Amino acid sequence: MDVDRTVTAIEDLRILARRRVPRMFYDYVDCGSWSEATYRANSQDFARCKLKQRVAVNIEGRTTEATLLGDRAAMPVALAPAGLAGMQRADGEILAARAAGAFGVPFTLSTMSVCSLEDVAAATQRPFWFQLYMMKDRAFMSELIDRAKAAGCSALVLTLDLQVQGQRHKDIKNGLSTPPKLSIANLIDMATKPRWCLGMLRTSRRTFGNIVGHAPDIDDTASMALWVSEQFDQTLDWDDVDWVKQRWGGTLILKGIMDPDDARLAASAGADAIVVSNHGGRQLDGAPSSIRALPEIVEAVGDRVEIHFDSGVRSGQDVFKALALGAKGVHIGRAYMYGLGALGEEGVSRCLRILHKELDLTMALCGVRTIDAITRDTLVQ
Ligand code: FNR
Prior knowledge:
Strand order of the largest sheet: 3-10-9-8-7-6-5-4
CATH superfamily: Aldolase class I
Number of helices: 18
Radius of gyration: 20 Å
Shape: globular
CATH class: Alpha Beta
Number of domains: 1
Helix content: 40-55%
Bound molecules: ligand FNR
Number of strands: 10
């Protein structure tokens, strides 16, 4: 297959991933909670936001380079934490981290990854970010934080919007588990994805690498929903955020902020950055899109904390629009997960190249040469 001609947009990666990844794991990525209204709104609301075309401006020498939390990046984009990346493709987290490192953007490893902190650190050069969920067992949390330090992680992303899991109908109906149960239906499905099966047979990484063998009394993590409901700490509050901040002592990003009051509390808690995010429409269905929530939050705390953004980004134009509305960094989830499922490391690289090209061309057509010049003035009000 000539991928240079057939894969020219993120949507092409999605279609290819659907063909190559077993249904249970493809559906895990391409779904939102309940009616999926918020999931759809995340992308639809980007389409409502219009760009201002400018002409006869010297656009030579443009650059997408930016600074994210003090570090240079090839563009102001980061790979968001995504559980089970190693089930889209064998060793998926390592492949995605390598592609991000080579491109020059940050990669975030999820608590719920298949490859462990140690696996990713050993296989990559560039420091990555680690995403933490608040769990009941504080001794295990402390150990995870220490492991992230030992792995050289340059930032900790604490996710605040998933102490209970939004219901995703497809995951229940598909019996999502890792490794997948060898039911007749799963075996028939997997038989049509030989590339995936071969990769999985070649790797030993098929379960939650950060958890299994590290957390006491956890031997069956196969059912993620059950595991989350048993282990995640529903008492999480701002005191716990402070506990994590003190325990970590480094750059702290608070993820899942959708309300200006929460944004103010996050800034007061001493976060270095917040991620305006509704978890890609996977948690509170019926919430507004993230892009709709962004301007009010920028207004509230834009001068106190670095504002990052995610949910619904499928193109460089979307990246541009989030920047125009005040985000300093834009995180992508499904866009790179589709790339991973479609083409492995090359698919993630391709995803980043597509977004970069689209961002660069959009900058040119809007008449801006630097990321800092992407302001509200570049949008039609
Ligand atoms: C996620 N997300 C997520 N977030 C997090 O903090 N920890 C996690 O383990 C996961 N896992 C996860 C798995 C999958 C398959 C997806 C799609 C998403 C949410 C993720 O970090 C991010 O907020 C969304 O993906 C952003 O929306 P888009 O870019 O996917 O539309």
